[in-house]
Amino acid sequence: MRILISMMLIIILNSSYSLAEPLPRPWAHHNQENYEAGVTTDNPFTGKYSAYIRSREVEGNTMGTLWQAIKPRPDWFGERVRMTLYMKTLGVKDAAGLFMRVSTYGGLINYDYMYDRVVHGDTDWHKQMIVLDIPRDTSLIDFGVWIIGKGEVQVDEFRFDVVDNKLRVTGTSEKIEFSQPENLDFEGYTEVEKNGN
Length: 197
Description:
The chain is mainly beta and 197 residues long.
């Protein structure tokens, strides 16, 4: 499950997406064919509205996300930041969770996809938290909610706070090595040609 979630989120966050019309900008919605997303007045945690992502007729390991990307605030650079929000689920068959990914110009990525604490079934409003370091060369922060398979997730009251370094991070880090572009004229050998077939 951990590898599946990681791979699917990486593909989603690096692919095209559409702005979900019932959602306020800048929220984005991926996989509108299998999931619908929007805002609802049905039992929000606070205020008049909460957001939701809900499966249509889905089969297998289909994933939907509701997310946005932001530039880090200047006062976040070099700090530890906690994202909190409230989430509830309805009939989540496979798994649901949150994610936050911090990308840097130097290729370091700090991320937490919550694959070690996924949510299933029916749950009432409960507080969730992700804590990550924001390096000084951070270029972009992606965050949101994901669901695999059937079910519905509602979210409300996203909040970001700079916290003390004594609070442990919830995610992990990965270094991406930049490589030189290759085969730009498409004249390189294919795998079949390399094997002499």
